[in-house]
């Protein structure tokens, strides 16, 4: 591959990855601008929950057909088209529509986000050689984390600038719409028209049925589900530090920001690069799950005293480092699991539909356990859940590793 082609490849990767890091900002507007959303759109808390349910349920339903679409059509057109749709929906959102309009927007946002995400994973996987999968997915995770931090700060700056106006959130949405439009133009200009893998693909319905029968896809999906379950459980570590160790609200905000955003910028790319030097991505995932178990066990046994706050904070951040490292390379195991590159979209749809399912039930289960067991006792279930899913993750990674060995011999 020539130097110019390499430069073009990495520029295209960078644009797609940044876009992938920003597509969820509008559907999840409530995470940063909850009060403004309620006030400007005249919503109740129940109505906010309703529009989020419309988005989440639609997304889960669309993952698999969205993945098939990503494989069936030109990847560049799918990325550009779905991002253009996202920009248009964001501008519609900025008109401050009624609740019915919001529900329609959230429904359509689910479609555009799913199609973009599965197409992005496919584009990223195709851009890299088989021995670069850890690096490219690790860099992707890091860049997406950095893009998320920067866009949050930029959106907050826009909001603060227009805070004295009647509807400051409208300007935030206009800002997002402009950013999405610019990224859409950049992708249209920079992405290759059709990859060699896509050029060879003339898949029929029977081919997609065969893809659904590939055991490796479902095992990778279960691996991702285990990693994501541990991630959802880890989101309770901030409230654990404040409730049990007496950490202040300001310190909690700093720790939460580092844990949720800062760590991923460095952890995933570094671990992805290291993973490329090893003989197997699945082995690396197994090792990381073992380390995750160690840190979760430490959180189980550290005494809940204010004098132990610093060791607890260090353990929480160390756990987050490992968690983001796993996130950075779990998609890289698709190769070992025998997933053909030309069907990455379909595979990603299945993996995401199953892998991100914990969003639907983990918070409900853990919240109930914490409420039913006041104090440190409730959080023991949280760390126990992390250990349980990490052990299951090791099992699925081991299965993928054995699949990889069989594929090499075949």
From TrEMBL:
Superkingdom classification of source: Bacteria
CDD domains membership: MFS
PROSITE patterns attached to this UniProt entry: MFS (PS50850)
Keywords (A to Z) from UniProt: Cell membrane, Membrane, Transmembrane, Transmembrane helix, Transport
Primary localization: membrane
Record's keyword annotation contains Zinc-finger: no
Subcellular location: Cell membrane
Record's signal peptide: none
Gene Ontology MF annotations: transmembrane transporter activity
Gene3D superfamilies linked: MFS general substrate transporter like domains (1.20.1250.20)
UniProt membrane topology term: Multi-pass membrane protein
Transmembrane feature ranges: 10-28, 48-66, 78-96, 102-124, 145-163, 169-191, 211-230, 250-272, 284-302, 308-331, 343-361, 381-400
Pfam families: MFS_1 (PF07690)
Major facilitator superfamily (MFS) profile domain location: 5-405
GO terms for cellular component: plasma membrane
Metal-binding among keywords: no
Name of protein: Sugar phosphate permease
Source organism (scientific name): Lactonifactor longoviformis DSM 17459
């Amino acid at each position: 591959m020539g130097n110019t082609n390499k430069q073009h490849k990495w520029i295209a990767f960078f644009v797609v990855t940044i876009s992938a890091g920003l597509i969820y900002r509008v559907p999840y507007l409530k995470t940063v601008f909850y009060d403004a959303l309620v006030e400007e759109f005249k919503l109740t808390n129940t109505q906010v929950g309703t529009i989020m349910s419309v988005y989440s349920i639609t997304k889960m339903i669309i993952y698999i057909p969205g993945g098939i679409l990503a494989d069936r059509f030109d990847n560049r057109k799918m990325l550009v088209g779905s991002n253009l749709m996202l920009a248009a929906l964001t501008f519609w959102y900025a008109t401050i529509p009624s609740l019915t309009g919001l529900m329609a927007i959230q429904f359509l946002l689910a479609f555009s986000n799913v199609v973009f995400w599965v197409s992005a994973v496919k584009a990223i996987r195709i851009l890299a050689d088989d021995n670069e999968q850890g690096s490219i997915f690790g860099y992707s995770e890091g860049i997406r984390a950095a893009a998320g931090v920067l866009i949050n700060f930029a959106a907050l700056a826009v909001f603060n600038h227009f805070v004295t106006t009647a509807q400051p959130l409208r300007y935030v949405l206009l800002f997002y719409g402009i950013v999405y439009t610019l990224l859409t133009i950049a992708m249209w200009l920079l992405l290759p028209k059709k990859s060699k893998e896509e050029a060879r693909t003339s898949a029929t319905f029977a081919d997609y049925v065969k893809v659904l029968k590939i055991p490796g896809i479902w095992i990778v999906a279960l691996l991702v589900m285990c990693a994501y379950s541990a991630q959802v459980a880890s989101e309770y570590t901030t409230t654990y530090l404040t409730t049990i160790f007496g950490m202040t609200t300001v310190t909690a905000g700093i720790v939460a920001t580092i844990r949720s955003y800062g760590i991923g910028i460095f952890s995933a790319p570094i671990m992805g690069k290291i993973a490329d030097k090893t003989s197997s991505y699945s082995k690396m995932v197994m090792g990381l799950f073992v380390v995750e178990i160690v840190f979760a066990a430490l959180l189980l046994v550290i005494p809940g005293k204010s004098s132990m706050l610093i060791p607890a904070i260090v353990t929480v951040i160390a756990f987050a480092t490992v968690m983001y490292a796993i996130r950075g390379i779990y998609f890289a195991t698709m190769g070992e699991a025998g997933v053909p590159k030309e069907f990455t979209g379909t595979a990603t749809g299945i993996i995401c539909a199953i892998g991100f399912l914990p969003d639907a039930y983990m918070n409900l289960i853990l919240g109930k356990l914490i409420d039913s067991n006041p104090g440190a006792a409730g959080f023991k279930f949280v760390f126990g859940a992390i250990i349980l899913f990490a052990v299951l993750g090791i099992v699925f990674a081991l299965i993928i590793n054995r699949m990889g060995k069989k594929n090499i011999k075949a």
